[in-house]
From TrEMBL:
It comes from Heligmosomoides polygyrus. One of its GO terms (biological process) is positive regulation of Arp2/3 complex-mediated actin nucleation. Belongs to the SCAR/WAVE family. InterPro entries: SCAR/WAVE_fam. Binds actin and the Arp2/3 complex. It is found in: Cytoplasm, Cytoskeleton. One of its GO terms (cellular component) is SCAR complex. PANTHER family: WASP-1, WISKOTT-ALDRICH SYNDROME PROTEIN FAMILY MEMBER. Residues 60-87 form a coiled coil. Downstream effector molecule involved in the transmission of signals from tyrosine kinase receptors and small GTPases to the actin cytoskeleton. Promotes formation of actin filaments. Part of the WAVE complex that regulates lamellipodia formation. The WAVE complex regulates actin filament reorganization via its interaction with the Arp2/3 complex. GO terms for molecular function: actin binding; Arp2/3 complex binding; protein kinase A regulatory subunit binding. This is Wiskott-Aldrich syndrome protein family member. Keywords: Actin-binding, Coiled coil, Cytoplasm, Cytoskeleton.
Amino acid sequence: MPLIKRAVSPVDVSRVKIPPEVTNGELQFVANSTLANLIRQLSSISKHAEHIFGEIYLEAMKLDHKSNTLEKRIANLTEKVSKLDSTNEQASLGELQMRKPFKSSMLVDQHTLDRSTLPVALAEVYTRCDPPPNLDALNPFRDPGAPNALSLYTNPSFFFDLWRQEMLKDCADNTGRRRIKSPPPDGLAVVKSPKKRRQRFPGSKQRVLHCSFRYMSSLRNQRTTAALSFPDEYQAPQALGLQLHKTNQIQHVQVSCLDQFQFSFRVFREYSNTHAAVEIIHHQLPAMK
C-alpha cells in the first residue's frame, strides 16, 4: 500500500453542499466556492513547495559539509606526500608496531527509521492519524504481571522483543549444546580408538625395570660429569695417573663381573639340578676373581 507523502487539498473544488438559505444564487455560490477551493489548493501547493525546498537546503548543507571535510583531508594528505622521501626515509617495523591501529572517526547513524528522522510532511501525516483507543483504562482489571492492555492493540516494540528472545534462546542453546559426532557412512562399523592404559608388570619385572632405570641414570650422570670435566692436558700429572689407574681398575672389575655372569648362566643351562649348579658356581667363582 503506497503512503502518500504530500497531498494537495481540497481535491473536489466544485463539489460543495448548497445551504438551504440560498434560493436564488446557486450558480454564483458554486462559483465562489470553487474559487475559494482553488485558492486553498494554491496555498497547499506553496506549503509543500516550502517543505521541498527546505529538505533540498538541508541536503545541500550536508553535501557541503562532506565536501569541505574531504577537501581538508586531501590537503593534509597532499602535504604529507610532498614531504615524504621514499628513497632516504624508511620506516622500521618497530616504529610501525608502536603506532596505534587506524580507527575511523566517522559516526554511523543507527537510527535511520527513528520517529525524529521523519520528514515534516510525513510527521504531519502521522499527527493527523486517529489516536488508539484508551485501553489503558482496563489495566486495573488485568492480572498482576500481565502486559498493558494497549500492547495487545498496538505494540511498536513487538518485533524487537521477539528478536531479543530468539537471540537469548540461541545463546542458551549454544552454551548447553554438546558436540555431536557425524554418523559413519552406510556399511561401515563404528571403530573406537583404543585407550592408552598404563602397563602393569609383576613384582620381579618392576624390580628389574627399576634397576635398569637406575643404571641408565648413572650413565647419564657419568656423561654429564665427563662433559663438564677438564681435558687431560690441563690436569696435574699425579691426578692424571691416579685417574688412569682407577679407570683400569673399574674396567677390570666390569670384565670380571661379566665373565662370572656368563659362567653362571652356562652352568644353570647345562645342569638341571639347581643345587649342583649352585655348588659348582660357589667353588669356581673365587678362582675367577
